[in-house]
Automatic annotation (TrEMBL):
Organism: Actinospica acidiphila
Keyword Ligase: yes
Keyword line: Ligase
GO molecular-function terms, A-Z: ligase activity
Protein name: ATP-dependent DNA ligase
Highest taxon listed in the record's lineage: Bacteria
Length: 308
């Protein structure tokens, strides 16, 4: 339902008002159309049932672009008082105080966040009921340039090593330049333990392929090597959520894929957009992943043996 300046959409038991649905938030890509707030609402309504399992119960950081890519951007952590009471919040500790993050538990909340021009949703790797213990580990494969073949190569090497460590893993395009490799955990280890393990895995790979991979935090030390970034595995750090839209021309989407799709020559970091990501979601590329959470203890022992 629309009155010209706004549009009301139903989401479960609630109705969400979408203000200025015709406002352009994202420009088109190389030969693509512009994307309005209404377009993003339609996409999120369609993908919500696939996206919400990756958002529920997790603190969020929101990349808001009220005036689109040409206007100011800000990363929102604290939930404004103006947000409706029915939106879930969680108060978490920070140095010198607390932050009250938004939690997206349902479609109505998701659509409300889109109305607020929250283009990209970044999620914590832990849940609101146990914020100190992550149930996801993320490796961010970050190429030095727009070189997806380097990303594909690094993902294969990382996948093989994780297989040796008997850890399940899943792939996701970032919607920008690289891939995320996600490992489900059982939530039994704290962030320091998880980050130390992730760093040891990355170091093992970089030592095996020193001309192709690096763990150097400073860009000037990386050269043209792909950066194995494990920095997201820390308290209060975030990673882009599966199926979220990136704040980039063409409205690319961070998209889960299967390991088999890594061999698809058409695969690249911006392969899916709001135009076609729902079709990929319907294939359920991460089917069963949520039930595969592992303890890191056996993997740490295996890694130690490999490293000698």
């Amino acid at each position: 339902m629309s009155d010209g300046g706004s549009r009301t959409v139903r989401a479960g038991r609630r109705r969400v008002e979408i203000r200025r649905p015709d406002k352009v938030l994202l420009p088109g890509g190389d030969a693509a159309r512009e994307y309005t707030k209404g377009d993003l609402v339609d996409y999120h309504r369609a993908v919500a049932r696939h996206m919400l399992p990756h958002l529920r119960g997790r603190p969020l950081m929101l990349d808001r672009r009220p005036d689109g890519l040409d206007g100011p951007a800000f990363m929102q952590k604290n939930t404004p008082d103006s947000y409706p009471d029915w939106i879930t919040r969680v108060e978490v500790g920070k140095e010198g105080g607390t932050v009250t993050h938004t939690v997206c538990d349902d479609t109505a909340t998701l659509l409300y966040l889109i109305d607020q021009a929250s283009i990209t949703l970044h999620r914590w790797l832990s849940r609101a009921d146990d914020v100190d213990r992550p149930d996801r580990l993320v490796f961010d494969l970050d190429p030095s340039g727009d070189d997806f073949e380097a990303v594909r190569e690094a993902a294969r090497w990382l996948g093989e090593l994780l297989d040796e460590l008997a850890l399940p893993s899943a792939l996701m395009t970032t919607g920008s330049r690289g891939l995320h490799v996600v490992v489900p955990l059982d939530g039994g280890q704290d962030f320091d333990t998880v980050r130390e393990f992730a760093r040891e895995v990355a170091d093992t790979l970089a030592d095996a392929h020193p001309d192709r991979l690096t763990t150097a935090a400073r860009k000037k030390d990386r050269g043209d090597r792909l950066y194995l970034d494990v920095g997201r595995n820390a308290y209060a750090q975030t990673a882009v959520a599966p199926w979220t839209v990136r704040a980039l021309p063409g409205a690319p989407v961070a998209t889960p894929v299967t390991w088999e799709q890594l061999d698809d020559p058409e695969l690249h970091a911006r392969r899916w957009t709001v135009e076609n990501a729902v079709e990929q979601a319907a294939t359920k590329p991460w089917a069963g992943l949520s039930g595969k959470g592992r303890s890191l203890a056996p993997a740490r022992r295996r890694l130690a043996a490999l490293r000698g």
